[in-house]
Amino acid sequence: MFVSGSASILHADLDSFFASVEQRDDPALRDRPVAVGGGVVLAASYQARAYGVRTAMSGRLARALCPGLVVVPPRMAAYSAASRDVFRVFDETSPVVEALSIDEAFLDVSGLRRAAGDPVSIGVRLRRRVREEVGLPITVGVAASKFLAKVASRQAKPDGLLLVPAGAERQFLHPLPVEALWGVGKVTTARLAEFGIRTVAQLAAAGEPTVVSLLGPAAGHHLCALADGRDPRRVRPGRRRSSVGAQRALGRGRHQPADVDAALIGLVERVTRRLRDAGRQGRTVTVRMRFDDWTRATRSRSLRSPTALTAPVLREARRLLAEAAPLVADRGGLTLIGVGVSGLDTDGAATGQPELPFDAVPPQALDGALDAVRERFGRAALTRAVLLGRDPGLAMPLLPD
């Protein structure tokens, strides 16, 4: 049975964020098909998506699909600045904001009706402010739960607003394809399709025992709960992060070990630098992989002590990737790699206990010196020789398990 409450949760999601920032900052790119990236597409404007250009697609294929495609290099500093401006609007809209990534968030506006109006009116004003003050299009979904609000925003894209009224969740959700449910990817979609389950309504009608028998207990119970409208999670503002991670699309096809290692080095440097910037240390190193057949795998191991230093995290990440080599070969090669550090403590990275034996130049001093140079002269001021001439990629959220 559907669980309905007041439709007072907003999911606000910037439209094709990186590409939209590029179009905002360069008038010559407006209304043109734009891709951010180089060898791999990191983001595509909606004009480019109309030709079939998608994130993680190779640049060569993207240009073949869209001969007029304009490819621009990523500018992470510009995207971070735009994100800060947008989140300033979020924070001024509601005191209860849960950031999901650099370009999306949940807002709980349940206590604002008397002061600010109904949730739809609040969503309309939020969209107008982001457009006028930041210059970017944003889509808002409004519903009684986080899951339904996110699905609503996906359905309203691009540059729209969609309300799922309380009590109308079944009419909204059931006609949608099963891919609309969190956790349903290509493999799960194909598995359900084998048994004639292609829509949320068909999944709900199949019953939980059947779905569990097809997908296993964890996935089966999870999807049946979503199909039944059960998502009791609240919007949780100001959560302290339990992990820091980044991932990078490599594109399809075989990749040389040196190229994969260079991508791994770049990711580890980003993750450990973010740990040091936040004054955090972590104990568990995780490497996540996506393969050419679209399957995924995760390998992780805990260190003896928490760290925010680059060297020990890189050493462990390399070991984990090497151990997964047979799996990579069996599944046709890597198309994406991610690195994460979890088990974060609250101690400052600079004050942590250094490990024995002490080197002539402690690793803390080296990492600190590199951080100081990059802080003063920019992140491109110093880089490893192995990364010279390579596409630096972007620090993106890790894939879910």
UniProtKB/TrEMBL annotation:
Keyword Magnesium included in the entry's annotation: yes
Keywords on record: Cytoplasm, DNA damage, DNA repair, DNA replication, DNA-binding, DNA-directed DNA polymerase, Magnesium, Metal-binding, Mutator protein, Nucleotidyltransferase, Transferase
Enzyme Commission no: 2.7.7.7
Cofactor(s) required for function per UniProt: Mg(2+)
Pfam entry (one): IMS
Signal sequence, renumbered to the chain: none
Keyword Transit peptide carried by entry: no
Any single GO BP term: SOS response
Residues noted as binding Mg(2+) in the record, renumbered to the chain: D13, D103
Active site annotation, chain numbering: E104
Stretches the record annotates as Disordered: 230-255
Family of the protein in this entry: Belongs to the DNA polymerase type-Y family.
Protein name: DNA polymerase IV
Organism annotation: Nakamurella endophytica
